[in-house]
Specification:
Elements lengths: L1 H35 L1 H12 E6 L6 E2 L5 E13 L9 H11 L4 H9 L5 E7 L1 H13 L6 E10 L7 H4 L11 H5 L1 H5 L3 E6 L13 E3 L7 E2 L4 H17 L6 E6 L6 E7 L13 H7 L4 H12 L2 H4 L9 H10 L12 E3 L2 E4 L2 E4 L8 E3 L1 H7 L2 H12 L1
Parallel strand pairs: 2-8
Antiparallel strand pairs: 1-6, 2-3, 3-4, 3-5, 6-7, 9-10, 11-14, 12-13
Helix pairs in contact: 3-4, 13-15
Bound molecules: zinc ion (ZN).
């Protein structure tokens, strides 16, 4: 009798001990989930329970000074699917329809439709004609859920190459990547809207839960000081000049209103098509293109996109000689511009203790008229014009 008593007591003690251990383990697991992993799990649950589809805002238009649109956003549509909302027996049918309407690979589409994720993108920025075809198919086949057609926008440049280096272009998410598009991205892009929907654990619809719609806010328009007519004239003549003079590095022109400082035109040759910014722009580059490595392709594209009129340094130096000679004629320092031997170049000139060389110091120009000095771009003559005036 006594023995059984002791055994029973012992058993109870052991049980109690085991229970305490289980209890402690449970408490620590709960604390771990609550305090350590809490916020992470909460956000995972949010993603699972809320199905968000973004609505892209309409990007602002870029106009020239006369309000001619140089960059516009056209309305297109994006198609996504919620695989869990498509009935298993419909999946192949849906994949077949999507792949045939949008010219996509059937197997790839089927894989997306069968996925266990809550949202998959089928096609981005497609024409309304195509999505209308899909709408009709959905209606005829009584597919009411699982396929979303949302409005989106696509950038379009109506004048292709015109002012390409000024305007720049956007990426697949409508983000500005170069030129004005990149510089004023914040002003142009607007803010994204959302379609929010509550879902169950598997990503399916919850009966009676409505979609809530947060509209997108469109971007602001931008008016440039560029005049499209002047820009096209400047581009035409720059191209002609570069071809006629075989300028292998291309060329630039900046046209400015001297009274206001407004830039009326700014051209770089060769330019590129803003609607296809990743394609080579010259015959020469087109020929090499397929043999280039990715790294060299990137370098070539960056070179093509660069607005050399504002990014590359150029010393005005000799171009200013026109001003010096005009002033010399106006002030009567030189009366006969063709009088030979009026000036002399010995290869260098010392001024205020500094010796400045002629660019042809190794074979000085010797005796010259002002006209010849200008033709030779002779540095000592133009420095001398100034000192003669002073004496
Ligand atoms: Zn000289």
């Amino acid at each position: 009798m006594r023995n059984t008593d002791i055994t029973q007591k012992k058993r109870m003690r052991n049980m109690l001990f085991v229970n305490i251990i289980i209890f402690v383990l449970l408490i620590s697991r709960i604390s771990w989930l609550q305090f350590v992993k809490g916020s992470e799990l909460q956000s995972m649950a949010y993603v699972q329970q809320n199905l968000n589809r973004n609505i892209n805002p309409k990007r602002g238009t870029i106009y020239d000074a006369n309000k001619i649109a140089l960059a516009v956003s056209a309305t297109v549509e994006t198609v996504t699917v919620n695989p869990t909302n498509i009935a298993t027996e419909d999946k192949e049918k849906v994949a077949k329809a999507l792949s045939s309407i949008f010219n996509l690979d059937y197997e790839t589409v089927l894989k997306k439709v069968k996925k266990k994720t809550s949202i998959e993108t089928i096609v981005k920025k497609t024409d309304k004609e195509k999505t209308n075809e899909l709408r009709i198919w959905m209606d005829q086949n009584n597919i009411l859920s699982g396929i979303n057609i949302d409005e989106d926008t696509k950038r379009f440049y109506p004048y292709n190459n015109l002012a390409s280096h000024i305007i720049g272009f956007t990426g697949s998410d409508n983000q500005g990547l170069d030129g004005i598009e990149a510089k004023f991205d914040k002003e142009l892009k607007g803010s994204q809207g959302k379609i929010l929907k509550l879902t169950d654990a598997k990503g399916g619809d919850i009966d009676g839960s409505a979609e809530s719609y947060v509209p997108a806010i469109d971007g602001n328009d931008l008016v440039l000081s560029i005049d499209m007519t002047l820009q096209s004239i400047v581009e035409k003549y720059l191209k002609e000049a570069c071809i006629d003079n075989v300028c292998t590095d291309g060329g630039n022109i900046v046209m400015m209103n001297p009274k206001t400082g407004d830039i009326l035109a700014m051209a770089t040759y060769p330019n590129y098509n803003l609607n296809t910014p990743y394609e080579p722009n010259t015959e020469e580059l087109k020929e090499q293109w397929n043999n280039l490595e990715q790294k060299d392709k990137t370098t070539a594209l960056q070179q093509m996109w660069r607005n050399k009129a504002i990014t590359d340094g150029y010393e005005p130096g000799s171009t200013f000689k026109l001003i010096t000679s005009s002033a010399a004629i106006e002030e009567g320092i030189v009366t006969d511009t063709e009088k030979s031997g009026e000036f002399s170049c010995t290869g260098s000139i010392e001024i205020a203790g500094v010796r400045i060389n002629c660019w042809r110091y190794y074979r000085p120009h010797g005796a010259q008229s002002l006209r010849e000095a200008l033709m030779n771009s002779c540095n000592p003559v133009f420095i001398g014009l100034r000192s003669k005036n002073r004496c």
